[in-house]
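Dear U.,

For the methods section draft, I wanted the exact inputs and outputs in one place so we can describe them consistently. I've listed the two proteins in the order they'll appear in the manuscript figures. Please don't edit the token lines directly; just add comments below if something needs changing.

First protein:
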Amino acid sequence: MSLPKRHKTPTEGPIGVVLAESDPARRAAIGALIRQSPHLTLAAMPRDDQELVEWMHSGEPADVMVSGASIRTHRAERYELLGLARKLRPGVPIVFAMGSEIPGAVRRAFGHAELSLVSARDELARVHEAIIHAATGRRYISPRLQAILDSSPLTERQVEILERIARGEGRPEIARALGVSESTVRSHTKELYKRLGVNERAHAVAVALRESVIMPPRSRFTTDDPGADD
């Protein structure tokens, strides 16, 4: 059952939070934060994948879901539950606590515009800020993760092209996928080579992987999940 999308306003009372975190220490810390805040209330606290699925199907109300990177599915594909949450609960914003701070993983998660992002290493105050922002319809990226995004030597489009190069795509295929001309792809490629200090495809991919500018290529048949490389 999909619930209509809505955002909480400051006058409507405490924000109902679903805390989907299987790590005991983080669950206890964030749970205490929610209970102690006059602006928040704990709507549910599923401890594993099965309990989270049951909540998503239950129709019980909530304003925000906080999902830790330790939540796993019982199948091989990691973070599949985030995709299921977007499908079953499109009206509930997700604050995703990343366990990895590898630039490629952070950039990939950032590409999912519906997710607010914090690091598992962030202070609890940042988690609180993220919940408030998400509940009121605003995306939140913690300063720690934003600094990682800002440190990239490449633009987002250059990273996207480089990721496709790493998957073995040629210039015509990249141009079709991005809806641009081959000459545009060529220009971006020349510039990213210059920024990485290389002059050919294989070297560019090797440097980008070594510096975590991109993540190792994923299969084209896997789910496009933000934390798949954590």
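Second protein (the one for the lower panel):
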Amino acid sequence: MLAVTSLKIFRSAIWLLFSLVGIAGLYFWMQVEFIAAVQIIVYVGGIVILIIFSVFLTQESGKEMPKPSLKRTALSILAALFGFGFTYNLIDKYGFPANSTKQFNASVSEIGTQLLSTSEHGYILPFEAVSLLLLAAMIGCIVIAMKTNEEKPSEPEAVAAGDTEDTPAPEVVVIPHVSQPLIVEEV
């Protein structure tokens, strides 16, 4: 909630960092250490750090974000309620039976085999989707960090005293002041 409702963009990124570390803690609690390590490396070490660097590279990193309009707030609340309802419906229909006879195999070699497998229970398509997500996050951070030409202040180039011999002198064109306009006749 704090990552979404904070008005300072840097604080939002920090709260997102804490949220993702908390999810990694849940993975450690479920004794799925490999997935927890991937969570920390990919999301905490990759995505959030890229977001924080892009925040620092923008000119308005310390300013507060504008407050959303009432229409946007209402639509956000409706979308969140729809998401909670959809998730509750999925959990209610599945039921999660407690006495599952199938043993959970979480070894790194089994995860690697299934991750890159193209068979029925392979995860190559989600693996590629996550790769595209990371690429989109990096491109997004670069776009946020880039400054357009209108935002860049035009500064004259300064020439150091020792560099005057290497750089050619600019050509100066002197136009005399003419009191009467010049008339050119075509022949």
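Candidate sentences for the figure legend, describing the second protein: Helices lie at 2-5, 9-29, 33-57, 70-94, 108-115, 124-145. DSSP finds six helices and no strands in the chain.

Thanks,
Y.
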